Structure formats: C-alpha cells, structure tokens
C-alpha cells in the first residue's frame, strides 16, 4: 500500500485549521458555561493524536496491504482507550464542567474520525483501482 504521509499531513493540517477556526468562532459566540476550561487544547490534541496514529499505521503496515485493516483497528482501539482515560481524568479534575467537556470532546472526535476514515477509504479504493 502506497500511503503518502506528506500529502496526508498537509490535508490534515488544513482540516485542523478549519476545525480550529470553526471551534474558535463557536467559543467566542457562546456563553462561558458552554465551553470547557481548556477548550483551546481540544483541536490541537486531536490533530496530534491522529497524526501520530497515522504515522504509526504508515510505518507499521509498510507495504503489506493485508496488515492495514488490522493495524487501523488496533490503533483505533488503543486510541479510544486513551480518549476514555483523558475523559475520566478531566471529569475527576473538573467535575462541574465534565458534561460540557465530554460533549465537546465527542463532537470534535466525531469530526476528526469522519475525516480520517474518509481519507483512509479513498486511499484504499485508489490503490485497489490502480492494481486492477
């Protein structure tokens, strides 16, 4: 499988900046009770985690196409467990803002997951069509 990490990083960077701009606009227009304490860290956090997991997928799967699916599922499971740990730590540290943070976290998680799965699906279908 030919994964182009540089192209993915550029696309993820532009997407992350777009999500950050939309999220910044949202936090400026909503009251403080609807934004968590460390709200400015959420989008860069997801950017770095997804970028790291894609690099691990790239180097872990290498050129073997049959390892990409298993590697992606494994990385996603480990990442989700990491996310649950982050949510629990934040909820215990700031219990009064736990609900707002969890909702915000999962909205941004869903947005970045859609981007990641869409990009991976496109890469896999492009590689499959070039093989035939």
What does this structure look like?
- This protein has 132 residues and is mostly helical.
- It is elongated, with a radius of gyration of 17 Å.
- It contains four helices and no strands.
- The two termini are 14 Å apart.
What is the secondary structure topology, with strand pairs?
Elements: H1 5-29, H2 42-61, H3 66-93, H4 98-131
State the main characteristics.
mainly alpha, 4 helices, 0% strand
Distance between the termini: 14 Å
Tally of DSSP helical segments? 4
Net shape: elongated
The biggest sheet amounts to: none
User: What sequence of helices (H) and strands (E) makes up the elements?
Assistant: HHHH
In short:
The chain has 132 residues and is an all-alpha fold. It has one domain.
